[in-house]
Write a structure and sequence with these properties.
Layout: E1 8-10, E2 13-15, H1 17-24, H2 34-57, E3 66-68, E4 71-72, H3 75-87, H4 95-104, E5 114-123, H5 129-148, H6 153-160, E6 171-176, H7 182-190, E7 201-203, E8 206-216, H8 223-253, E9 256-257
Antiparallel strand pairs: 1-2, 1-9, 3-4, 5-6, 5-8, 7-8
Helix pairs in contact: 1-2, 2-3, 4-8
Length: 264
């Protein structure tokens, strides 16, 4: 059954279904639920319309900025920026607020941990179901041998790994956050020094037998090292709150039909 939607307008200005359908391509939604993308797109366009109407009320003329050499803002984007620049006043975080933000969650300011690890990779493409099963079975068989004889890891890596590290017994050297895929990194964080993961770890590359040889947990960075970045983050958060309040105020005064802007 085809899903239908109510006609949408903002202060009498209609937003066409065709425009919403085009915008919906920019809004991801769970598989099988395209209506969620459609609604998100409709809200985004309704907010955009509200701001453009406010620009007319303020008699603003577009003054596009040069974003890069030869690349300029579109007129509507410039107008929206100008309205927000003129209307949104965000609080500047005080030094005390910045310090409090640092102390509220010290773990967020910890330097990346360093690992020395080794692995044996059984490669398989993510979309090849048969190859994935074969790779998993091979990884489990080799892992069983390692559990019986841990010192065989190097030789088994040289014999079986699809990674170039096999020439060095699977050793990857020193790695830190972002150097490997997320699944690999998550597994490393659960291992004790010298431990081999109890099961092969699956990633887009295939299946990995992982051993952690050493780790050095990152230290919490001093306030002075993160102060500038933290202040910038707090300023951005304050601006987002203020801009949302501005849009909410416009929506409260507007005649919007066919959609609610509460989740815009």
């Amino acid at each position: 059954m085809k899903q239908t939607f109510t006609d949408i307008s903002v202060n009498g200005e209609a937003i066409s279904p065709e425009l919403i359908a085009t915008e919906a391509q920019n809004h991801p939604a769970p598989k099988g639920k395209p209506g969620m993308a459609w609604m998100a797109a409709a809200r985004a366009l309704a907010v955009r319309t509200l701001i453009l109407q406010e620009a007319k009320r303020r008699n603003l003329a577009a003054a596009p900025m040069e974003l890069a050499p030869g690349l300029w803002e579109a007129e509507e984007e410039a107008i929206i920026r100008q309205v927000l620049d003129e209307a949104v006043e965000a609080d500047t975080p005080t030094p005390q607020a910045v310090r409090a933000g640092y102390e509220a969650n010290l773990e967020r300011h910890r330097a990346p941990s360093l690992f020395e690890a080794a692995h044996i990779l059984f490669a398989a493409r993510p979309d090849d179901v048969v190859a994935r099963k074969i790779a998993r079975d091979q990884a489990n068989a080799v892992l069983a041998k390692i559990k019986i004889k841990p010192k065989a890891f190097d030789a088994l890596a040289r014999d079986h790994s699809a990674c170039s590290s096999r020439a060095n017994g699977g050793r990857l050297g020193q790695i830190s956050a972002g150097d490997t895929v997320a699944e690999f990194e998550a597994a490393l964080k659960t291992l004790a020094q010298g431990e081999v993961a109890v099961e092969p770890v699956e990633s887009r590359y295939g299946f990995h037998i992982i051993r952690l040889d050493a780790r050095a947990d990152g230290e919490i960075l001093p306030f002075e090292a993160v102060e500038t970045a933290l202040r910038s983050a707090l300023e951005k958060a304050a601006w987002v709150r203020a801009s949302r309040a501005f849009v909410d105020a416009l929506a409260e005064q507007a005649d919007v039909t066919g959609i609610s802007l509460k989740a815009a």
